[in-house]
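Figure S4 source data
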Amino acid sequence: MTKLSHLNEKGEARMVDVSAKDVTHRTARAEGFVGMATETLALVEKGEAKKGDVLATARIAGIMAAKRCSDLIPLCHPLPVTKATVDFAISHDPVGIHVTAEVRCTGQTGVEMEALTSVSIACLTIYDMLKAVQKDMEISTVRLLEKSGGRSGHFVATSRGAKK
């Protein structure tokens, strides 16, 4: 098993020193899904949610989350995010909204956590915008889809696991 880099020799949490790493272009993509009732999805499609434009609000929230990841996750490095996008696909089978995020930077450590945080916050925002009409929506399948750059190379997720 690989040694965890966020633990020192005593097993205590630490922020990894990335100062000796090469500065490279880093990209990460992540996804999530918000499952909901057909009637709830119809409110989004028609733009009739009482709190306003659900997807526009979730997009801004996801972008902001990518930029603030290190404020939320204790051992993440603050990164100079150069791109953060959040996209949505309406799904009728299964019923819900598929969320994807892509984050880029040029730096010494990857942007996987920024992409995952972006998707998570976008999904939570969708929930918040619609919870008045449906409290039992489900957020699922939050995962890293792909990452590139850095020493560990290119990663692409598969439906059964991961491959390099």
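Figure S5 source data
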Amino acid sequence: MSTLRPSPTITVSEHTSIGEAIQTLIDHKVGSVIIVSYSKPHQAVGIFTEHDLLKWVFSFKDNNLWNVAIGTIMSRNLIKLSISELDQANHVMLQNNIRHLPIIYHDDTGEEHLAGVISMRDAFRALVLENDQLLKKLDQNNHHKKITVLAKNLRDQQLQNKVLSDHAQLQFIDFNKEIVTKELLDSVLDSFVFILDIDQLTIQFWPILLKTILDQPKHPEVYIVYSPAMHEKKNIDAVKIIAAGKAVHAFAKPLELLQYISQIKGSITDAE
């Protein structure tokens, strides 16, 4: 993405104590610190994140590890990306299910240097900036196209409202129980596009709803949106298999948001 740039990196040496590394996270209000080599401080050798902190917190308390070097517990399987390949950052983070991606470059001697870090927050911010430019170009005559959204919590509804309300008339389903009722089905079938946000829905419910919709002689275009971190791999694989059959479209949040909007825009435009 053209607006995506590495953020300044917060680093600590591999010899830094665990307690000091944690204090660095707190002081700088960041989700990770990059661990650099003691002898070559320009080279990244590991990472320590908030998730690592949660994993180790009870060990810190019980075994008094605060003064042990952070290098003993850091994540060593560090995935890096060349600064010349920034356009691949979203794909790399999504593919590897990571939220922080160190960016590197090589000097004239071929030695590796740490240039910065891309976080999922950086990627989402860049998407929003680019989408704002895209939204201004959308045809305002498309408001009559009704999009029905089933998103269980307010945060997911707000996200859909932000990215779609300028493109079409939005209708949010008042959803209390995970039951496929006639009222629910009628709301969906009366739409041009149906958005199914499965993040807060059970695996016992949403596939039944999806099958019921697709079994109808005439049904709207169906889009499944989901956050990969909230689902087991087998469930994500199931969504991808469904999407591969061309019966529905599936997009991961937030990194595929731009493709998601573009696809819906194309559907609305083609129907004019």
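The chain has a mean pLDDT of 83. The chain has two domains: 11-124, 138-270.
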